[in-house]
Amino acid sequence: MVLPTPTLSTDRLLLRPFRDGDAAALFAMHGNAHVLRYWDSPPWTEPSRAQRFLAACRQMADEGTGARVAMERVEDGSFVGWCSLSRWNPDHRTASLGYCLDAPGWGHGYATEAARAVLSWAFDTLDLNRVQAETDTRNVASARVLEKLGFVREGTLREDCVVNGDVSDSWVFGLLSREWQPSVDGPRPAH
User: Fold this and answer.
1) Phi, psi of 184 (to 5 degrees)
2) Which residues, other chains included, contact 109 with Cβ-Cβ below 8 Å and sequence gap of 6+?
3) Helix 23-30 vs helix 48-63: crossing angle, to nearest 10
């Protein structure tokens, strides 16, 4: 089953399917060790990784396992990062939320805004019952984003990642449809 990648808009962001032209911005973001310091894989060193990422986005949608959207700032069209809904299981009505923002986008509420739009799509359009998210326990900012969205921290995965010899724990968060509180403004389909 193909899962069409949505195009959504918020007050400040356009969430759209990736384009081939996003490769340079993706490589710059995923090649930055500071941006990926809490990530579960090392920074990219080869520009071809961006093309493989874009192919994986298309494959995820084609296989019906999820959707990943680029975050573009409405005011100037600049790439901010991405947000995804992956591991979609329509039988169990579950999926996982993920996001990655480039450093200039940190601290502006973009992650919360984009994730809120994707979650509205997940609960309203896909009729999900549960969305899960994980974050490195050192990534307090990401945990704060999830808590603002209504996620509940459900547990800790001990030493579940080893990246470049650095062992880390992850927190598991869950959000149920009955707990979901969409914003009054809500996301809008982009035209």
Assistant:
1) -60, -40
2) none
3) 110
